[in-house]
Design a protein that fits this description.
Layout: H1 5-18, E1 43-47, H2 55-58, H3 66-77, E2 85-89, H4 107-124, E3 128-132, H5 134-139, H6 150-153, E4 158-160, E5 163-168, H7 173-178, H8 183-195
Length: 196
């Protein structure tokens, strides 16, 4: 008897939670559970990694920190509810510096986690994927190659892996400050809303 989508997801979550493949994150637990969202989303968001103050603490992606507040503002701007989306990351555990600050995941960590990302995409099978930031956009190359670059292709929908893909900027305060406000991201989210 074939397992249901929900049971397959539970198995994937259990496997990700038990993973200790990355030495510097072996003491962390993957952020992958029912708190990531619906298994039948209007859009799947893929970000960089769980943040120390956000998802690693709350176990819910983009929740509990400033990036989460900005993400919620962007969702609200297009009337998209968390119950209608699924969020995952290029790396499912929280990468930290020796001083316990957030850091970018390494290429090896992204490669180590790529099978979880690929299997999550295959299982959820979303019609629309939105990557949040350059790390996420690069990470999906392990699923299917592309030549997209965030600086050139942000906010522009393309076909990828039999789906619609829209590369978006990450909603972190640092990225928003570099763009001089939320306006550009709000416009990109409006484009996303037209895809769903």
């Amino acid at each position: 008897m074939a397992l249901s989508k929900a049971n397959l997801f539970k198995c994937l979550c259990a496997e990700a939670h038990a993973c200790t493949f990355c030495p510097e994150m072996a003491d962390k637990t993957a952020v992958l559970s029912d708190l990531n969202g619906t298994l039948n989303p209007k859009v799947m968001f893929i970000a960089e990694a769980p943040g120390r103050q956000g998802a690693d603490r709350t176990r819910r992606p983009f929740y509990g920190d400033n990036s989460g507040k900005n993400f919620q503002t962007l969702l609200d701007s297009i009337g998209l509810r968390r119950e209608e989306i699924f969020i995952t990351n290029a790396v499912m555990c929280s990468p930290r510096t020796v001083t316990d600050a957030n850091r970018k995941p390494t290429r090896i960590e992204i490669k180590n986690c790529s099978s979880y990302l690929k299997r999550t995409i295959e299982l959820i099978d979303p019609l629309v994927i939105a990557t949040l930031g350059s790390v996420a956009l690069d990470a999906i190359k392990a699923v299917e190659l592309h030549d997209l670059k965030l600086k050139d292709d942000a906010g522009l929908p393309v076909g990828w892996c039999g789906r619609k893909l829209i590369p978006l900027y990450h909603p972190s305060p640092q990225v928003i400050a570099a763009q001089r406000g939320l306006d550009l991201q709000l416009r990109h989210f409006k484009t996303l809303s037209e895809l769903i």
